From TrEMBL, chain A:
<protein>
    <submittedName>
        <fullName>DUF58 domain-containing protein</fullName>
    </submittedName>
</protein>
<dbReference type="InterPro" id="IPR002881">
    <property type="entry name" value="DUF58"/>
</dbReference>
<feature type="domain" description="DUF58">
    <location>
        <begin position="197"/>
        <end position="371"/>
    </location>
</feature>
<dbReference type="Pfam" id="PF01882">
    <property type="entry name" value="DUF58"/>
</dbReference>
<keyword id="KW-0812">Transmembrane</keyword>
<keyword id="KW-1133">Transmembrane helix</keyword>
<feature type="transmembrane region" description="Helical">
    <location>
        <begin position="32"/>
        <end position="51"/>
    </location>
</feature>
<keyword id="KW-0472">Membrane</keyword>
From TrEMBL, chain B:
<dbReference type="Pfam" id="PF14258">
    <property type="entry name" value="DUF4350"/>
</dbReference>
<feature type="transmembrane region" description="Helical">
    <location>
        <begin position="263"/>
        <end position="281"/>
    </location>
</feature>
<keyword id="KW-0472">Membrane</keyword>
<feature type="transmembrane region" description="Helical">
    <location>
        <begin position="29"/>
        <end position="48"/>
    </location>
</feature>
<keyword id="KW-0812">Transmembrane</keyword>
<dbReference type="InterPro" id="IPR025646">
    <property type="entry name" value="DUF4350"/>
</dbReference>
<feature type="domain" description="DUF4350">
    <location>
        <begin position="61"/>
        <end position="232"/>
    </location>
</feature>
<protein>
    <submittedName>
        <fullName>DUF4350 domain-containing protein</fullName>
    </submittedName>
</protein>
<keyword id="KW-1133">Transmembrane helix</keyword>
Length: 435, 403
């Protein structure tokens, strides 16, 4: 049951006959009561004549997944199984961040027919969005009243991380191809693999000349190298307390996901195997043993549901998690935050265990606000803020120095710069054969 | 967009979450029964606790409140006196006419009493007791009696030969009256003022200046009870007249209610109904609320801001300036390609040598100066920035001197 604005207007119009009847209070009262009763009778008739929303059957069609920032089209098929047409206003009960348009949809479904409602959803938060019910308000022929019913109809839409950093992918892939088949300009490490022999052309590094082959063929022959393959990349994302911090309109965890996605896309093209772990005190997400397009699909799926938790990170368990994935040498990427020596004590205590067997990079998002505050010396408050920012930067640099002393690399950058910075670090390691 | 239906759609009735009216009624039966029961209990308690709640008019014969007069009325009834309550002059005169034999009229003076109608009432009774009459009422009753002002509320001795007063001996005195002519005064309070006055005549009228003599709360004090019973008891019937709204005469000037046209009140009622209906219209929720758990996010800069405020509030100037210095020295050392282990003095010396400034000056900026006020702090911070800018200007990114 619901009433409409027309019913209110009809009631209010009753003031005209009440005044027209005029001076006699008794007759005015009679008119008043008569009017109200008349309105109620009309309302009852209208509601009784409205098509029953209970006789509607609903079916949805909806994409399973949508990338954050893109539109999804939701369709609802309304079938009227009742004997009267249903003139209805329909509300789909999406959660607010599913980005459903606020306006309700108007539809008329004649008896025994079917109509389609199309709605564009633009979700503005990662994760799984749900709509558990659809509410239909069916108006009577006079539009005075309506019947209303809420009908269970389950809709689920998984909103995947946007992977905005994919714009950096083509340039990094080009750099990767340059590595391939190039003569090694570096001192040959154990990591670069022998690929083939070819004739010397000008510009090749003389150190690459294979003298034995040259002696056999009486022409200068160089060895070519290709980047090592089938290395393991283990990405560990910290989803605990510090990942909930919002930096430049992006939660730290989202930046971590962007960086992981870019690195994974790059590494899987370079024929390395990527494993992904999201941990705090327990494993929140895990993708292992996938390659190629399948890997990225699985990654975004796993990431979609992970939100930061306000608990302390359990670093002690991380070496065991990594050991479970691989016992061989791997490139372990720890995406976390390094802020103060106190807060990073857990990380620093387990790093030696990881650096003993693996190449480790500690990746941290830095806050561009700190840099900005450091340079703003306008007035007294700004100077104190600059001092505080300087202190924060000093703390972070002390932790970074400690991490480097243990033998891991530190990659840091603002939210926009971090994903390409991590990709560049990976390429540099690959070129150096350190993976 | 219209499709024909190929397959019969499955029955969706069980998916409807909104309960039917019938179901809703069945579910709410318990609460309806409970509230009806509660109302019944309240009504029963109300009925059992006496039909009138305290708060009727003062000296109301049915009121058990301290201000009421139920006590004396009940005692008189028990003694066989026929007590009739009246709330208007016409009711009182009807009661007097109906009474068989001698009857006493009690008049409680209040703002509704019309003094000019009192004389006709007085003529119909065999004796009259007027409680706490006002100036106008007194003038109407007898020209010999004048208002004497309020006494101090203490009981006074009877000191007169009115039988009821004599038996009472002492009684509470409220308002007092001065007398002349053949009126008799009792309970004097000095300089010719009396608490009770009896005016003889065809119908003797007794004026009692204090309502406390009859009120439930105070009737037991000193001789009040004896005085009240003595004044009211002698006749077979008693009419207790408390003037009320019913006394307001019809020919009074028209009230606002009478001046407004007849449609105003119904229109206002209609506005009220429309308002309630509009509330229902706007308040009807379009389906249940949708909940969404949102993740917590924290602004990252909060710790930095907090620390800045702490520095400022505790005026930790030296600490603040040292933080700035460490940063600046670090950057200068990097810029000048000094060893990572170079100490601050070495950096100061190198900076002074490069910029050509006095070494003592540069040392003061980088190491020695202690800010004594916030102005000093801002000044030092500016000097640090200036030094850094100079060094930046004089070197290229590799740390070599330009030129």
């Amino acid at each position: 049951m619901a009433v409409t604005g027309w019913f209110i207007a009809l009631l209010a119009v009753g003031v005209v006959p009440v005044i027209a009847v005029g001076a006699d209070p008794a007759r005015s009262f009679v008119v008043l009561i008569g009017w109200i009763v008349g309105c109620l009778v009309l309302l009852a008739i209208d509601v009784a004549l409205a098509g029953s929303p209970r006789r509607l059957s609903l079916s949805r069609s909806l994409p399973d997944r949508v990338r954050l920032g893109e539109d999804a089209t939701s369709e609802i098929l309304l079938t009227n199984r009742g004997g009267r047409p249903v003139r209805a206003l329909v509300r789909d009960g999406w959660q607010p961040t599913a980005g459903a348009p606020f306006a309700r949809q108007r539809v008329t479904v004649p008896a025994g027919e079917r109509r389609r409602l199309v709605q564009t959803l633009r979700p503005f938060r990662r994760g799984e969005r749900a709509s558990d019910h659809i509410t239909v308000r069916s108006f009577g022929p006079f539009r005075l009243g309506a019947r209303q019913a809420t009908i269970a109809s389950r809709g689920r839409l998984r909103v995947l991380p946007p992977f905005n950093a994919r714009k950096h992918l083509p340039s990094r892939l080009a750099r990767l191809r340059e590595l391939d088949g190039a003569t090694s300009v570096m001192v040959r490490g154990q990591g670069t693999e022998f690929d083939s022999l070819r004739d010397y052309v000008r510009g090749d590094d003389v150190r690459s000349i294979d003298w034995r082959a040259t002696a056999r063929r009486s022409e200068l022959v160089v060895r070519t190298w290709r980047p090592e393959r089938d290395r393991r990349v283990v990405i560990v994302v910290d989803t605990a307390r510090t990942s909930a911090a919002r930096i430049a309109d992006e939660v730290r965890l989202d930046t971590a996901f962007e960086a992981s996605l870019l690195l994974s896309a790059l590494a899987t093209r370079a024929d390395d195997r990527v494993d992904f772990l999201a941990v705090d005190r327990r494993i929140r997400g895990r993708v292992t043993g996938s390659t190629g397009a399948d890997l990225l699909a699985k990654l975004v799926d796993a990431m979609a549901e992970i939100d930061p938790e306000l608990i302390e990170m359990d670093w002690d368990a991380v070496p065991a998690h990594v050991r479970q994935i691989t016992s061989h040498h791997a490139f372990v990427v720890l995406i976390t935050s390094i802020e103060t020596p106190g807060a990073s004590a857990g990380l620093l205590s387990v790093l030696p265990q990881l650096t003993r067997n693996h190449t480790v990079a500690v990746v941290s998002v830095t806050d561009p606000d700190v840099e900005e505050a450091r340079n703003d010396r306008g007035d007294r408050e700004a100077v104190y803020r600059a001092a505080s920012a300087e202190r924060a930067a000093l703390d972070a640099s002390r932790v970074a120095a400690a991490v480097r002393r243990i033998g891991a690399d530190v990659v840091s950058g603002s939210p926009g710069d971090l994903p390409p910075a991590l990709a560049d670090h990976y390429l540099a390691l690959k070129a150096a054969g350190r993976l | 967009m219209t499709d024909t239906l190929e397959e019969p759609p499955r029955n969706a009735e069980s998916d409807v979450l909104t309960p039917r009216l019938r179901t809703q009624a069945r579910r709410s039966v318990f609460w309806v029964v409970l509230s009806v029961f509660g109302l019944a209990v309240v009504a029963a308690v109300y009925l059992l606790s006496g039909n009138r709640s305290p708060g009727g008019p003062p000296l109301d014969p049915t009121s058990p409140a301290p201000e009421g007069a139920k006590a004396v009325v009940e005692v008189l009834r028990a003694e066989g006196v026929d007590v009739t309550g009246a709330d208007s002059a016409s009711a009182a005169s009807t009661a007097l006419d109906d009474a068989s034999g001698a009857s006493t009229l009690v008049v409680v003076d209040n703002e509704y009493l019309a003094p000019d109608r009192l004389s006709s009432l007085v003529a119909g009774a065999s004796s009259v007791v007027v409680i706490d009459p006002s100036f106008q009422t007194v003038r109407e009753l007898s020209p010999d009696v004048l208002i004497g002002g309020a006494a101090d509320g203490e009981p006074a001795d009877a000191s007169c030969d009115v039988p009821a007063a004599e038996r009472a001996e002492r009684a509470t005195v409220g308002n007092t009256y001065r007398i002349g002519g053949d009126a008799t005064g009792c309970f004097p309070v000095g300089d010719g003022r009396f608490g009770v006055v009896e005016i003889p005549g065809a119908t003797p009228v007794t004026i009692v200046g204090s309502s406390a003599v009859f009120a439930n709360g105070t009737i037991a004090e000193s001789g009040n009870a004896a005085l009240a019973l003595g004044l009211l008891g002698p006749t077979d019937s008693l009419v207790w007249y408390v003037p009320s709204l019913a006394d307001v005469e019809a020919d009074a000037p028209p009230t606002i209610g009478e001046l407004t046209p007849g449609w105003v009140v119904p229109s206002l009622l209609l506005v009220l109904v429309v308002t309630i209906a509009a509330g229902i219209w706007r308040g009807r929720r379009f389906g249940p609320l949708v909940v969404e758990p949102l993740p917590v996010t924290v602004r990252a800069g909060e710790t930095m801001e907090g620390r800045a405020r702490l520095y400022q509030r505790s005026s930790a100037r030296l600490r603040a300036v040292d933080a700035l210095r460490i940063g600046t020295i670090d950057r200068i050392a990097t810029r000048l390609d000094l060893s990572r282990h170079a100490d601050a003095s070495a950096v100061a010396a190198a900076a002074a040598a490069l910029t050509g400034r006095d070494i003592a000056d540069v040392r003061a900026i980088l190491i020695d100066a202690e800010p004594r006020s916030d102005a000093d702090l801002v000044g030092l911070s500016d000097s640090l920035s200036l030094l850094e800018t100079q060094i930046h200007a004089l070197t290229d990114p590799t740390g070599r001197q330009k030129r």
